[in-house]
Predict the structure.
Amino acid sequence: MKTPSRDTSFDNNADDKTQLATRMEKDDDDNNFMFNRKSKEIMGRSLWSWLRIIGFNLFFTAGLAAFWGLCLWVFYQTLDNYTPKLQTTSSFIGANPGLGFRPMRRVIKSIQIIQYLINNHGYILQNTDPYSSLIWFVHGGAGNWDDFKEDLDAFLAEYEPGYWANAGASQTKCKNLNWIYHKCNVIYFTSLGNWDRPPLNKEEACEFNKEWLSDQGSDIKCISEEHYGYYHGKPCMLLKLNRVYGWNPIPYFNVTMVENHQTMPKDLKQHIRKTWEENCRGRGFEIEDRCPELNMVWLHCDGEDDPDKENIGSVSYTPWRGFPAYFFPYWNQLGYLQPVVMVQLKNPTPGVLINIECTAWANFIDHDRAKMKGSVHIEFLMD
């Protein structure tokens, strides 16, 4: 008996169609990765899965931020708003103050200064910052010294009475100054009070009167009304010791120690000797050995090299040749006024670049020209 044959072409066609439909559905799913309409998934995850992930990340981030904030709060509890944690020798600044000066040229005009020097004088200033070290100006009525006058006015504004609100309670007259008249009707200062007063405490600050910066014996004074001497070619530079919290100077009270100093300038030694003879000589061994009027961080300004020393001319200091030690230490007191000195160049040589170095002198103040320890470098040019 002959077995009837079976036609399987229909079944094969059905399988192909099923496979094609399945493949098409798979391709459709792949093309709808952002949102699968069949499984209702978003980028391969269900809505509930995405909510759990987002919730976990929110709680994790909030917990991390809270922990970081707690650590920061604990850190700030160890700090004081007015007292630095590291002071003097334990700090990066150290216990060796440097010197600062005013006026300073504005940055926007520094390029003009350099171009002028190159075109008119042939100087090419290398490894120098005109903003912080160069004083260049043309004196006279058509000069360009207005910026210097404005900078000095701005710096000295805080020395005006009433500038610091509620500072009257902390400021004290550490040194009384009186006016006396010379026979030639020239006004001078005479000092009264105790040069050997104890260091400042954290609740007091010494008064500093801006009028003290006016040298009454000078024909051109270092005051705003006379343009600080820049108009007349007798410019004034304001020198100051940089503030170091808690630093208290140890002056040279003994004149013999000064005379035996190996590196102190001879001119400064002579000035200190004269101060000792006028105020302490013949007043007994105790006063002669520890002269109160030598309670000073002395200041000396001169040319760096021999040509600079020839061109700088004579130099005067007002009101003192240094910074009285009773203005220290600095405790971030309310209304604290640091002592300043006006250094006036009486007759500098015009048209010549002069390198000036000012140094501070007291026990344990080291001098390093490269690192500017206990000193400051100034480049001066007057046309």
Notes: Confidence is low (pLDDT under 50) at residues 123-130, 177-193. The longest helix spans residues 47-77. Residues 14 and 154 are 96 Å apart (CA to CA).
